[in-house]
Amino acid sequence: MSALTVQIRRKGVITLPKEVRDRYGLNEGDVLTLEELGDGSFLLIPRVSQVARLGDRVAEILEDEGVSIQEVLSVLEEEWERYYKERE
Question: 14, 27, 62, 81 - which has most CB atoms within 10 Å?
Answer without folding.
Answer: 62
